[in-house]
Amino acid sequence: MKKLLRAEVIRQRAELTSQEHAEKSKAACIHAQHLLTSYFKSGSTLLTYIPFGTEIDVTPLMDWWRKRGGNIAVPKVDMAKRSMMFYIINKSDDLVQGAYGILEPREGLELYEAWEEAVALIVPGSAFDRNGGRLGMGGGYYDRFLQKVVGSTNSPVRIGIAFQCQLVDQIPMEPHDFDVQQLVTEQGTLDCISKT
Question: What is the model's pTM?
Fold first, then answer.
């Protein structure tokens, strides 16, 4: 069921024209900026992702955060350990092509583990529901990462970001799946009923 839902939503996302993709990404980033303003602290860190394929482009959000004086940390996947860690990046030269062809932090960058200083985690997904349910790409990297972070002191707020076409009635959630606490699309923001 998850595979079928994932394939259908990704197909819909891929049908956006390049202009629609850019405009809707920009609108979603503006909504995310309004949401994140209340969480921002000088020098604080935003955990986010590097967009790949037809994923919503969060680059404008990253640029906005940096201009305010915040730090950006993005993930790097260890396929052998099936794990994901975050690293601080400062410029585009800090990224190289990595697992699955996705840009990720180059070797030698600072590993980020100060979760109490990270105010938010921007979570990608193939689909979301209005209760915060999230369907990833099937690798489980974010769920395994969140097992280490959620419940720790001041763990970052989990914010899903997606196009409106990625919202579905209900995500089939399993016990090991983590939800998001807030959701942002090009149409606005939504407080979710998080169970974790």
Answer: 0.91
Q: Strands, DSSP E only, in 92-195? A: 95-97, 103-105, 111-112, 118-123, 127-128, 134-135, 157-161, 182-185, 188-191
2-53 pLDDT, tens digit per residue, is: 888 888 999 999 999 999 999 999 999 999 999 999 888 878 899 999 999 9
Cross-strand bridge partners of residue 184: 161, 189
**CATH 3.40.50.10420 holds for 2-191:** yes
Distance between CA atoms of 158 and 115, rounded to whole angstroms? 12
- Can you read off the two tokens belonging to residue 177? 């799946």
Residue 133 token pair: 């349910």
Whole-Å CA distances, 98 to 95, 102, 183: 9, 5, 27
**CA separation for the pair 184, 35 (Å, rounded):** 9
- Please give the Cα distance from 3 to 7 (Å, whole number): 6
- Domain residue ranges in the chain: 2-191
